[in-house]
Amino acid sequence: MAKKEHANNFWTDESGAITVDWVVLTAGIVGLAGIVYTYLSGPVDGIDAKTGSALSSVSVPKVSFD
C-alpha cells in the first residue's frame, strides 16, 4: 500500500513544475530571437557604412549666437 501511495504522491506533486514552464518559455524566446536575427541580419548588414557615406556629403552650416 505504501508504494501505491508514494507513486500517487509523486505524480500529483506540483512543486518544481514552474521550472519546466520557465525553461520552455526561455527556449522559445531564445529561438524567436535567433529567427529574428537571421531574418534581419541581411537587410541591416552595412547600414552603418551606408549612413556614414550619406552623411559625409551633408554640409552643416555654422550658427553663431553672438
Structural notes for this entry:
The chain has 66 residues and is an all-alpha fold. It is 74% helix and 0% strand. The protein contains three helices and no strands. The protein has helices spanning 2-12, 17-44, 47-56. The model has no long low-confidence stretch (mean pLDDT 86).
Output mean pLDDT: 86
What structural category characterises the helix and strand content? mainly alpha
Write down the secondary-structure element order. Answer: HHH
Rg value: 29 Å
Low-confidence stretches: none
Helix content: over 70%
Number of separate helices: 3
Strand content: under 5%
Largest sheet: none
Shape annotation? rod-shaped
The termini sit apart by 95 Å
Task: Provide tags for this entry.
rod-shaped, 0% strand, 66 residues, mainly alpha
